Every structure is written in C-alpha cells, then in structure tokens.
TrEMBL record, chain A:
Residues 64-441 form the Circularly permuted ATP-grasp type domain. Transmembrane segments: none annotated. InterPro entries: ATP-dep_Glu-Cys_Ligase-2, CP_ATPgrasp_2, UCP005522. This is Circularly permuted ATP-grasp type 2 domain-containing protein. Pfam families: CP_ATPgrasp_2 (PF14403). Coiled coil: none annotated.
UniProtKB/TrEMBL annotation, chain B:
It comes from Beijerinckia indica subsp. indica (strain ATCC 9039 / DSM 1715 / NCIMB 8712). It comes from the Bacteria. Residues 1-317 form the DUF403 domain. This is DUF403 domain-containing protein. InterPro entries: ATP-dep_Glu-Cys_Ligase-2 (IPR051680), DUF403 (IPR007296).
Length: 482, 319
C-alpha cells in the first residue's frame, strides 16, 4: 500500500482513510460475516492428506488489493504478449520445432520433459491454440516492477475465488464500491464461454456442445469446477458421464447419448484417458485421446501444455517472446539460476541460504526450499536432493515482494501478496478481465501464498486513478445536467 | 441433462423425504410410548418404529433387545444404520454437492445449511447415543424443518425442467413407499391378535400413525367421526386430497413423468407402469381392499412402486 518513501500509494488513499476511520470491531464483524457467507455458499477448498479439513475455507481478507488503471493497462499488454508467445511456442514444439532447430531453447529440455507428449507431435489442434485458459502469477517488486513468478497453463484454478470474492465484497462494503470505480470482473464466464465456443472443431456445423470435465467432488478445486459449469450454463461431467464410440465423445444424458464438442477439462493429462496414459486412472475417459487426435473434440487446455509451464522453460520466456514475436518481454522474469547449468548449480549450492529453490515440475508450494527461512539441517537435506538431480531444480533470489494491509485480530498488518490474472485465448483473440486472484501470505514475513500452504485471498480492484475518476464523474454530471 | 445429475437429484429428494419420515415416526412413537399402560400396553411401539422405517433387520443384527434409547440412536445418529437420519442428510448433501449446477442457490443452501446444522448436533448427548427427550424434540423439529426448506426452496426457485421433475419423482416415490409401509406395519406389529379392532388401544395407535403423517386434523375434516381403521386406509390410500396418500403420490408421479415424456418427445415403460398403478388406485374401494386383505394390497403396491423406481432408472438414468 505504501511507496518506498513511506507515502501511501495514491490509489490507496480512500482505503487508508477507511481503515483509519473504521473501528477494528466493525472490521472483525465484516470478516465474520464474510466467513459465514463463504461457508454458506460452500466455497471450499480441499487439502489433500488433510482428512479433518477435507473441506476447508480459504481465509479471506476483507481489505481489497488495489491497482490503478494505468498499471493494469501495462500488465494487460504484457499478459497478452506472453500468452500469445506461449501458444506459438507450443504450436511450434508439437509442430516444426523451429525454436529448437534455431538452438534458442535446448532440445533435451523439451524431449526429456515428463510433460512433453509425443502423441501430440504433428497433431493439428483447432486454430493452433493450446492454452485457452492461462493463470499467470505475478509479483510486484519495486515501485512499478511486476515480475512473472510462474506461468500456469495446464489447469490453473482460482478464478471462482476472483468472482466470489467480488460478490462477497459487494455485499459487505457497498460504500467502498461507491467511492471507487472498480472495473467489473463478472463477465469472465461469458468471455470464457465465447472463447470455448470459438475453438470448437471446425466441422461441427451447429451450436457446439460444451462441457466441463472434473475429476469429481473429492478434487481440491471441485467447487470451482461446479461453479464454472454453472456460470457457463454447461454440464459438469465426470469421466463416467462420458463415453467414446467411433472416436466421437458422448455424454450419458436422460435423453440418451449426446455428442460433446468442447471439453473444458480440469483433469491432468496423465489421468485423462486410461487407454492413452495412466491405465489406472479411474477418473478418465477411455478413448478420449483417439477422439481428440481425430479432431472430433477440442480439449481446453490442449494435451501437452505442461511442457510450457515447466519452471525450466520459464527461464527461457524472454527468448521465446523474442523468437516468435520479435518483441522484448513486457513482463520481467525473476532472475533464475538453472541448476542444469554447472556454473549456476555451483552458485546455488554455495548460496542456498539466500535463495528459493524449486522443483521444475513442482506446484502448490510443494518441494521447494526457502533458503533464508530454512534451518541448517533442512538446507543440508535439500542439498542432497539437489545434488542427485540438479536439472530438476531452478533457484531464484528471495524477492522483496510488495505487501498489502491485511486484517488480523490484533489489527491491520502488512502481508506479502501475489496476483494471478486469468488470460483467455480463443480464435476471437486473447483477453483478460481486469483483475485476478490476489493471494496473501498470512504468516508474518512468509513469502508462501499458496492456498495449499495456508495462504489466503483478497479481492483485487482495478480502479480509476483518483484524479482521473473525479474528472470522469464531473464530466458525467455536467452531461446529465445539460 | 446428465443421467448422473438426474440420478443424484432423484436420490437427493428421496433422502430428504426419508429423513423427514423417520423424524415423524420417531415423534409419533415417542408420544405413543409415553401413554399410560392402560391405554397402550403392548410395548411394541419401538419395534413398529423400526419396522416401518425398514431398519428392523439391521437393528436386530446389532442388538438383541429393543430399547427406546437404542432405537432412537439407531434411527437418528447411528453410523451403522445406512438409513439413519444423519446418514440420510449426509447422503442428501453429498448428492446435492455433486449436482450443485442443477440446484438453485436457495435449494443448495437449504441442504448445505442443514448439513452444517447437523454438525452442531454432533456434540449433543443425543448424538452420542444417550436418549435425551428434550434434545430429541429439538433435533426432530430441525429435521422436519429441513425437509420443508428443501421442498419449499425447490418449489419456489427451481426451473420447471427435467431437474425439477426428476427430483419430484424421487420425493413422491419415497413418500408413497413410506406411507404404504407405515400402514402395513400398523396391521402387523401394532395390533395384538386378541385386541378388538376399534378398542382404545387401537384408537391411540392409529391416531399415532395419523399424527406421524400429519393427517390427524385432516381425518376429522374429511370424515367428521372417530378414528376407524377402514377410514384411515381410505384416507391414506384413496383420497386425492390427502397429500401423502398413495393416490396423491401417484397423481404427482404420473404428472411429472408426463412432463418429462412431453419434453423429451417420447413415452416409455415408466409412464406406462405409473399410469397402470394410478388406474388401479382410482378404481379401488376400501371394501375391496379389505376383502383382498390390506397387507396383501400394500405388499403388491410396495413392489409396484419399487419396480417403477427401477424402471425410471433404466429408462433415464443409464443404470
């Protein structure tokens, strides 16, 4: 909320005033209300291996995170650029592989990658689009420096929280919405639906039938799956609801078998089809890959996109953007040491106490070492893992993440935040709703914001900058009076 | 709609209806067992509660003797009884959660809210297997209110499409089954062989049944005379005005099956079977029913009803 010199960021002026004038008891009451709302609506998140808390609420903070229109515009351009490049990269990797031939990305990084799907080589996906829904994690470091922390291009989750957080905030603090002009996010489901429609197999020749494919109600993001299906107005299918005959996908309905054209699937590649991938998958659909490769159904995201959200590939994103678009990356990458490179490995080995080391295929905050916060013993154990398989790790400096005021029993205190905007790609273009999911680390000094690690969320507001907002409102008034 | 969705909605409704019925049976039994022995002395009230809720067999496998506290526990919170009220509400919520997309916010909140409330009861003596009358009445009221909430929100907020029709089918098939069983049990368990039909014992037992299905007042409005077994049979089997009667259930079942067939553009075995049962009920008289034997009549009905459930499954639910 504050700048380096301790002054309040201009966009936060009204929030600062609100915080200063609202008694803590009222804030606490609002938070309790918010919790009740979340619990009642059933917005829960399951944590694997946590039996008692199989349905847990993600802690929600009622103090919104604010970004100005101007800042957002730059982020948006950067996000669109990045996702365009990611799509071109994937089309290339599963096509002519020019970037490998040009030596701009090491070929073994692709071919040795567990997320690389040889089945997809030469496969023509509709409109050459692979990543229909991307969640790009950003952090603010300096005053106006946004860095990309990672690209989530498999089945990124959290968009339901972006939407529900807004709904809850509108019920809890309507006055704040009056004072700020907050860009709406509620049209996200409409945008998603039109994106999905736009990528239906070209020969459908009728209104495409779209469905969401979920692993089922025991999945940690099941709430989101059902929420999205609901908002999209499409069926929420489990594997057992689908069947494939003659390479065509059908859902079992009360009126018999009904053909499906586009599946927004929230099942990982590995579990998608027991005939093609893991034979022990109980949640997949036998024959789905055959139908997919035959071009009879569109999967969003495409199979094999995981190769692009690999943390090792991440380090090449500036190269990738330059190679396909001939542009400089607008959003910066966090400086990263690739432990596969001997010099980098040596450096990382020596500086474990000041680095964050991550597994290239890890997610959800698992399998990482936060050097400065780890004990000597933890670092030693990690060093052994690292030595056994250096190419499996990357390392980054611990960043001075920006913080946001966050409400606690003891008062309001700054906590680290990140931001995950959701980027949609269809044959109708690449689009982002103004906002995203702000995740907040609830422990003091903690940099880990993942919900599986106890992080919370906040509503994210993209607002007109104060002066500009006043200007627009003044103008509107004079227009209505004339 | 997805067959699984229809299946879940169908069973969601059945479980809520069943929980409600169990609550009513327990309530009525409690009243009956509290009467002085000169009025009812059979001591079989709790046994009959078990019989009419279909839980007798499971109970006997677990316990040797029938005691009020055990029966209450078995029917309310027992984890061992697949049809205990707690399990019914658990299953209802699991079904609802699987089909969130097919429910309105209000209906989901009715079910989810009840489930959260249920968790709050878990700390009570009642939930720990100790029979506490006061806690029990609070709990039974909560269960009855849950079914009202579910029913009311579904009625007031759901689109009149197949999601609504399948859930209504579940409700009426379950309700028909419950009404039939409570009638049957009265005939078998409640009345000792040497007791005269129409005696005072009989009177309170039948009154208990009417109360269980919220029909005591209705009885007086319809017949304006004291309680007679054949009148009760008439009310609960053949009176369309009585919302829990078999014929009223089938009137609804036929109506909703017809809605589905007209929306989907074709009839099937389920429609034919339902109309057949409806026709039989429309033509029946109490005199014939008693000549044939109430038990025989009810047994045949319960079989037909469960067959219809299967047919609906086969026709629409891909089972």
């Amino acid at each position: 909320m504050t700048l380096a010199d301790g002054k309040i960021r201009p966009v936060y002026e009204k929030i600062a005033h609100w915080l200063a004038t609202t008694p803590p008891s009222l804030l606490a009451a609002r938070r309790t209300q918010a919790e009740l709302l979340f619990r009642r609506i059933g917005i829960t998140f399951a944590v694997y291996g946590d039996k008692d808390a199989s349905e847990r609420l993600i802690p929600f903070d009622i103090i919104p995170r604010l970004l100005g229109r101007g800042e957002w515009a730059r982020l948006e351009t950067g996000l669109v650029q990045r996702v365009k490049a990611l799509n071109m990269f994937l089309a290339d990797i599963y096509g002519p592989q020019e970037i490998l031939k040009a030596g701009r990305v090491p070929a073994d990084l692709i071919h040795g990658n567990p997320q690389f799907r040889p089945e997809m080589v030469g496969c023509k996906v509709p409109h050459n689009l692979f990543v229909h829904i991307a969640g790009i994690d950003l952090v603010r470091i300096g005053e106006d420096d946004f860095y990309v922390l990672e690209d989530n291009v498999r089945t990124p989750s959290g968009v339901s929280y972006m939407l529900e957080n807004r709904e809850v905030m509108m019920r809890l603090v309507p006055d704040l919405f009056d004072e700020h002009r907050v860009a709406p996010v509620e049209n996200y489901p409409d945008m998603l639906l039109s994106s999905l429609r736009s990528v239906a197999p070209v020969n459908v020749g009728r209104e495409p039938v779209i469905a969401v494919l979920t692993p089922g109600r025991f999945n940690s993001a099941y709430y989101e799956h059902s929420f999205l299906a609901d908002k999209l107005g499409v069926e929420l299918c489990e594997g057992r609801d689908l069947l494939v005959e003659d390479d065509i996908v059908y859902m079992r309905t009360t009126e018999g078998a009904k053909r499906v054209d586009v599946l927004y699937r929230r099942i990982d590649d590995d579990f998608l089809d027991p005939d093609a991938f893991r034979a022990d998958s109980m949640i997949g659909v036998p024959g789905l890959m055959r139908a997919y490769l035959a071009g009879n159904v569109t999967l969003a995201n495409a199979v094999g996109t995981g190769v692009a959200d690999d943390k090792a590939i991440y380090t090449y994103m500036p190269e990738i953007i330059d190679f396909y678009l001939g542009e400089t990356a607008i959003l910066k990458n966090v400086p990263t040491w690739r432990c596969r490179e001997p010099d980098a490995y040596a450096y990382v080995r020596e500086h474990l106490h000041e680095l964050v080391v991550k597994e290239v295929n890890g997610s959800g905050g698992y399998g990482m070492l936060v050097g400065p916060h780890a004990s000597h013993a933890e670092r030693e154990t990690f060093a052994i893992k690292l030595a056994q398989n250096p190419e499996n790790f990357i390392a980054q400096p611990t960043l001075a993440l920006s913080t946001c005021p966050t409400f606690f029993e003891s008062g309001v205190a700054p906590r680290h935040v990140d931001l995950r905007p959701f980027v949609l790609s269809g044959s109708n273009g690449v689009r982002v709703v103004p906002g995203g999911l702000t995740r907040v680390a609830l422990k003091e000094n903690s940099l880990v914001v993942n919900s599986s690690q106890g992080g919370g969320t906040k509503d994210t507001w993209i607002i007109e900058e104060t002066a500009a907002a006043l200007g627009t409102r003044g103008q509107m008034q004079s227009q209505s009076q004339s | 709609m997805l067959s699984r969705t229809a299946d879940n909605l169908f069973w969601l409704a059945r479980y809520v209806e069943r929980a409600d019925f169990l609550a009513r049976v327990i309530d009525a039994t409690q009243r009956l067992s509290a009467l002085p022995t000169t009025y009812v002395s059979t001591g079989t009230e709790w046994e009959s509660a078990l019989e009419s809720s279909g839980a007798a067999e499971g109970f006997r496998a677990k316990y040797e003797t029938i005691e009020a506290a055990r029966v209450v526990d078995y029917l309310t919170f027992s984890a061992d009884n697949p049809s205990s009220i707690r399990n019914c509400l658990e299953f209802a919520r699991a079904n609802a959660r699987s089909v969130r997309t097919a429910l309105t916010h209000e209906t989901w909140e009715a079910i989810n809210g009840a489930w959260i409330e249920l968790k709050r009861f878990e700390g009570t003596n009642l939930a720990k297997g100790h029979y506490d009358r006061e806690e029990l009445s609070i709990f039974l009221d909560f269960v009855k209110k849950t079914s009202l909430d579910y029913d009311g929100t579904a009625y007031r907020t759901m689109l009149r499409n197949d999601a609504y029709w399948f859930s209504r089918l579940g409700l009426y098939i379950e309700r028909a089954d419950n009404t039939a069983r409570i009638l049957d049990v009265k005939y078998h368990v409640l009345l000792p062989e040497d007791e005269e039909v129409g005696g005072s014992l009989d009177y309170f037992q039948w009154a208990g049944i009417l109360r269980a299905v919220s029909a005591l007042t209705a009885y007086h409005w319809v017949y304006r005379e004291t309680i007679k077994p054949w009148r009760i049979a008439d009310l609960l089997i053949l009176k369309k005005e009585m919302p829990r009667s078999l014929i009223s259930c089938y009137d609804n079942i036929c109506h909703f099956l017809d809605q589905i067939s007209s929306a989907y553009g074709h009839n099937g075995a389920a429609q034919r079977q339902a109309h057949l049962v409806m026709e039989r009920l429309s033509k029946a008289t109490t005199k014939e029913i008693f000549q044939m034997g109430l038990h025989e009549f009810i047994t045949a009905f319960v079989e037909d009803n469960s067959l219809l459930g299967q047919t609906i499954s086969e026709q629409y639910l891909f089972n």
